[in-house]
């Protein structure tokens, strides 16, 4: 009898917690995301992922490793990079501390990455970036502009330029994946963040056309609202409930979903897709 009462109380508590969560967010959406195991589709490929110590970058790194790639992640924090390497737990994973906004260091840091990877990289994932937060255009300051553009635009452009120059000198066929945002497909309202992503989509389009002639394929991904540490959504624990009412599919996205798309674009299965920025946002921009 005591055990039956205990089980009943336990179930009741779980039910009440679920009801409370539903009340907090307005609905319930449980996630069941399937990841495709291609079978080492990136075997032997050397992949550089900037901003790879957390969130989407780390998820892409995990997926690359599972598909046989050699991965180098970069970031500004050595401590976060060390934590990420422990989480990746692979001898094929490496890390280099690198602030991509410091243009003068690009040659030195790129050489370090090539040494860690054991040869020229095959895939560049431009994932490093600073979020714009809830800043409004009328509140924009020069310091805010300079900080964000230095990473999201200037740093990305000159790193890409350096890698492309090396590929062209070596006659090396490579791939570039630019991590944009759904903000880059909407009218710019928030100043530098939206503008940086809008410009990145244009860069992807232009370089896609120009570099394909050299065997270099450029594409982009524009994530929507993805559950990461850098995107704080009040009262949300996606393991319990991923519901979000203003997204057409009624939920947030996962970093692993973006990683699935990134792996496909890196693979030879996507060699006929050129200069495109693929939106993965649960339908958010369709209603905008």
Question: Mind explaining what this structure looks like?
Answer:
The protein is an alpha/beta fold and 288 residues long. The protein has two domains: 1-29; 31-287, Rossmann fold, CATH 3.40.50.720. 42% of the residues lie in helices and 12% in strands. The protein has helices at 2-25, 55-66, 78-88, 106-117, 142-170, 192-211, 255-266; strands at 46-49, 70-75, 93-97, 123-126, 175-179, 217-223, 277-280. The chain is globular, with a radius of gyration of 21 Å. The chain starts with a helix and ends in an 8-residue tail after the last strand.
Q: What is the CATH superfamily classification of the largest domain?
A: NAD(P)-binding Rossmann-like Domain
Order of helices and strands: HEHEHEHEHEHEHE
Distance between the termini: 57 Å
> Helicity, in percent?
40-55%
Give me the CATH architecture of the largest domain, please: 3-Layer(aba) Sandwich
What portion of the residues fall into strands of 2 or more residues? Answer: 5-15%
Number of helices: 7
The biggest sheet, with number of strands, parallel, antiparallel or mixed sense and barrel status, is:
7 strands, parallel
CATH third-tier fold name of the largest domain: Rossmann fold
- Low-pLDDT segments, ≥5 res: 18-25
Assign an overall shape. Answer: globular
Overall pLDDT score:
87
Taking strands numbered 1, 2, ... along the chain, how are they ordered across the largest sheet?
A: 3-2-1-4-5-6-7
CATH class bucket of the largest domain? Alpha Beta
């Amino acid at each position: 009898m005591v055990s039956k009462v205990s089980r009943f109380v336990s179930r009741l508590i779980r039910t009440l917690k679920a009801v409370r969560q539903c009340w907090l967010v307005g609905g319930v959406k449980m996630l069941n995301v399937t990841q495709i195991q291609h079978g080492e589709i990136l075997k032997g490929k050397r992949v550089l992922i900037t901003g790879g110590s957390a969130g989407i970058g780390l998820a892409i790194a995990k997926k690359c490793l599972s598909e046989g790639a050699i991965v180098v992640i970069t970031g500004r924090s050595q401590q976060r990079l060390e934590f990420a390497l422990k989480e990746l737990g692979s001898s094929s994973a490496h890390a280099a501390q690198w602030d991509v906004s410091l243009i003068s260091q690009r040659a030195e840091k790129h050489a370090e990455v090539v040494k860690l990877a054991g040869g020229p990289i095959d895939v560049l994932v431009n994932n490093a970036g600073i979020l714009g937060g809830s800043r409004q255009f009328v509140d924009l300051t020069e310091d805010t502009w300079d900080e964000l553009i230095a990473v999201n635009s200037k740093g990305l452009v000159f790193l890409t330029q350096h890698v492309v120059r090396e590929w062209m000198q070596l006659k090396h066929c490579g791939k570039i994946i630019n991590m944009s945002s759904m903000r880059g497909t909407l009218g710019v309202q928030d100043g530098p963040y939206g503008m940086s992503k809008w410009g990145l989509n244009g860069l992807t389009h232009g370089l896609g056309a120009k570099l394909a002639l050299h065997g270099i394929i450029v594409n982009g991904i524009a994530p929507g609202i993805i559950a990461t540490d850098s995107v704080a959504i009040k009262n949300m624990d996606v393991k319990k409930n991923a519901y979000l009412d203003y997204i057409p599919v009624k939920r947030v996205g996962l970093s692993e979903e973006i990683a699935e798309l990134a792996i496909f674009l890196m693979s030879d299965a996507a060699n006929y897709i050129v200069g495109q920025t693929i939106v993965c946002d649960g339908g958010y921009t369709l209603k905008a």
